[in-house]
Amino acid sequence: MAGRIEERLARRFIICDGAELARLWGRIGAGETEELTWVPREDESRARPPGFRALAGGLCAEAIGKLDPKDGDEFALVSEEGPFVRAAVAALSEAAPAAPVLVMSDRVGDDELPEHPCLRTTGLRTLIRDDVDAEFAHLGNLRRVVALRELLGGREKIAILLQPDPDPDGIAGGYALRILLGRKSPTAPLVSFGDIKRPENLAMVNALGIEVRTIEPDDLDEFDGIVLVDVQPTVFGDPPPARVLSVDAVIDHHPERSGYDAVIRDIRTGYGATASILTEYLQAAGVEIRAKVGTALLYGIKSDTQLLGRDTSSADMQAFATVHAAHSPALLRRIERPALPQDGLRAFGRALAKSHVEEGIHLLVLGRVREDVIPQVADMGLQAEGAEWAIAAGTVGSDLVFSVRNVGYVRAAGEVVRGIVEGIGVGGGHRSMAKGIIPVAAFRERYGKADAATVHRILLEAFSSAIQGESS
Ligand SMILES: [Mn+2]
Questions:
Q1: How far apart are CA 236 and CA 162, in angstroms?
Q2: How far is the CA of 153 from the centre of ligand 1 (A)?
């Protein structure tokens, strides 16, 4: 670059209304580039607050001009009085019309201020108040952590019990709890009364190397501590096993249930994920969130809130931001995009060679494949030009399994799938993704055959009528 570049630090001129606010600013601590000025009030002593100089000549354009504001300098007006702020904005508009203005007032609202092209308002006390409240929230979390550690510190073996067929939120929450307790899996295993079934949840535990042990209720006898994460005891049957009716702790976000005892109970029904609660615990306790647990928690929050969609609180947003900064994108990719087996890719290739996008529907019939191939093919199918819906169908064991994706602004995928499987299978899902399972035998009984061509024809007919039929 040619020419002389003049380096100058932009200054901030702080103009305080009276000594009290000036002293408050002084206590918070002035920044290096801040020039502190104050306008003494009629009724107070003229004792100069430390570090401040009086605005010579009072609140007028001339006095502002004497500060010699340059391009890039900014102003803050600190006052609780409308007349002061209005006079100050007017004086600034005259003396330094281009200077940005930050009005710091807890009492004077935007609507009481004159027009200004570059002005923001916030309250000095409100800012401090919000930080104080946030710190008390951290302290509340720390209190939970201290209580959990005190209660469980001396135990030999603690069961971290998740719901049957554990989901990512429960797995992440349980894993984070173990880290918080400073334990490893031999003395604090994640346990469940039912296997992990969904392929994406298996992909999570495989990618992260987290073990979830399937146990029988009687196996709880070998533990001298039980903590439930993302679940409450009465979920485990009616009546539930006696051993789970009196536990050490329950950390959950589902609606609060009664009929059990827990020494520590932290149930936050306003939260979209238990992983958000555990994120707050780790933060409050000053435990470093490493990539593995950060990725687990991120995936837990993401999957329970459907990527911060419905049922998301600001606490979930905050927690998500925290774990996002800590997660490993490579690990997350391994969970969300598990490696496809070669035969799955070949089945995809064959299906792709035969497929067309018809009326916005891209249907891929894969034949016999590993189950986790199906949702990934559905994801890829949606990328075809003109596709508003992608359906991947494959045979897994004795079932016809299909995954459905859509672009999001069309009919809800879950509804469409429920309509299609009605009476012959099971299915459901959300707005933009869904899954259906129809036993091959039931399909054959209803449609005569279950070969690829028949599956293709029947599914295409069913989807086009389900999608078009009720879209009006
Ligand atoms: Mn959950």
A1: 10
A2: 26
The protein residues having their C-beta less than 5 angstroms from ligand 1 (an ion) are 169, 230, 274, 304
pLDDT for the residue numbered 6: 57
CA–CA distances in Å: residue 442 to residues 416, 425, 439: 19, 8, 5
Do residues 266 and 277 make contact, with C-beta atoms less than 8 angstroms apart? Answer: yes
Q: Calculate how far, in angstroms, residue 207's C-alpha sits from the geometric centre of ligand 1.
A: 20
Residue 4: predicted pLDDT: 54
Ligand 1 center–CA 173 separation, angstroms: 9
Cα(229) to centroid of ligand 1, in Å? Answer: 9
Rounded distance from Cα 169 to ligand 1 centre (Å) = 5
CA–centroid distance, residue 230 to ligand 1 (Å): 5
Low-confidence ranges of the chain (pLDDT < 70): 1-7, 469-472
User: What's the one-letter identity of residue 458?
Assistant: I
Q: Are 428 and 417 in contact (CB under 8 A)?
A: yes
**pLDDT per position as a tens digit, 118-132:** 999 999 889 999 999
272 alpha carbon to ligand 1 midpoint, in Å?
7
Domains delineated in the chain: 12-122 (3.40.50.720), 136-335 (3.90.1640.10), 342-469 (3.10.310.40)
* 199-208 vs 291-304: helix crossing angle, rounded to 10: 170
Q: For residue 111, give both structure tokens.
A: 């609507």
Tokens standing for residue 36: 């502190």
